[in-house]
Amino acid sequence: MTAPFATLPDASRGRRFSEAESAHRSPFQRDRDRIIHSSGFRRLKHKTQVFVEHEGDYYRTRLTHSIEVAQVARTIARVLGLNEELAEAVALAHDLGHPPFGHTGEDALAALMAPYGGFDHNAQALKIVTKLEAHYADFDGLNLTWETLEGIAKHNGPVLPDPVTGEIPFALADANAGFDLDLATHASAEAQVAAVADDIAYNNHDLADGLRAGLFTLEDLRELPLIGPCVAAVDARWPGLAPSRRQHEALRRFFGLMVEDVLASSKQRLAEAAPGSADAIRHLGHPVIGFSEGTFTELKAIRRFLYVRMYRHWTVQRMRRKARVVVEELFRTFSEAPELMPSEWNACAALDSTGRARVVADYIAGMTDRFALQEHRKLIDPFVKG
């Protein structure tokens, strides 16, 4: 049953460039399909979350993470009576703007781009789907609906100017100037679903990846809230279970616990707010999809554990430093010598320093972990043919 506050495809605010409607797919289904078939989406296969692409075949990549987020988003949207296709489209697109090497790459690019309008992966995702995907004859980008673009821009909440600079990232401001996304309000319930599905997925898979990497054990997790009782429940039901099965059973319970909490909490918030339309959700002044306060607090304890035992582990820190150096040296080299970039990019040599920096950042942000390492090696190592 469709909820009164669901986003209806027939009521979409449309696309920036007018197109005939599909006879077989809703506007949000077309958005989803265009995202899946985009070059940016394919590149997520070799962009990692915490570990670098070459460190192991079983760690999550941005692609597998995005698929997991989309699966969770569809489930939550279905139960709440929301539009599944819109939630899925936003979920699949939410990481398109991430540069190589996860948050390390983003932090490096953000610092490098601070004098030139900034860098933010959400803003970069918008730039990809509105400009950088250059495959269609009639327009640049994917020409997605307003609702999907809004969800990409605002799934984590309203986009407000930086309190110090008074500005928002250039790429986001540029996209908004072409198609006003009403940045000061919250996003649709479907976009909020995509955001919390992202939280559920990475809370679960960061634990899984950390266990696989040997950075901690299930015994270490026994002391934590939420996941600890899950481990205990598995041990009580299946004493002596094989380690891999024991880990899987504990994590799937943790995963289900988070989904159930979001569903219960969101139903309660929606019942209290009683929004009568999708637009009413945007103007409530607060999100309606999310964890309960208790679970949110307990998840912060797990994040603190991961920060110490995983994100700041010395082996991860070593690779983070290497990755940061790679991004910094690529940026400096291409900014000084744009002719070293492929022909479709090196025309930026004629631009001023800001324009050139933005093109260089776009080129680097589009790289996979593997390609960034290869490019760096070609540029730095005189014994590697470039």
Using only C-alpha atoms, the radius of gyration works out to 22 Å
What's the CATH topology name of the largest domain?
A: Hypothetical protein af1432
Count of structural domains:
3
Overall residue-averaged pLDDT value: 94
Order of helices and strands: HHHHHHHHHHHHHHHHH
Assigned CATH architecture of the largest domain: Orthogonal Bundle
- CATH H-level superfamily of the largest domain: Hypothetical protein af1432
Total count of strands: 0
Helical content class: 55-70%
- In whole angstroms, the N-to-C terminal distance is 58 Å
CATH class categorisation of the largest domain: Mainly Alpha
Which outline best applies? globular
Number of helices: 17
Name the quaternary structure.
single chain
Relative strand content:
under 5%
List the helices and strands and how they pair.
Layout: H1 27-36, H2 39-43, H3 62-80, H4 84-93, H5 102-113, H6 121-132, H7 146-154, H8 170-178, H9 189-212, H10 218-221, H11 227-237, H12 243-273, H13 278-282, H14 293-311, H15 314-336, H16 353-365, H17 369-380
Region (Disordered): 1-31
GO biological process, one term: dGTP catabolic process
Organism: Amaricoccus macauensis
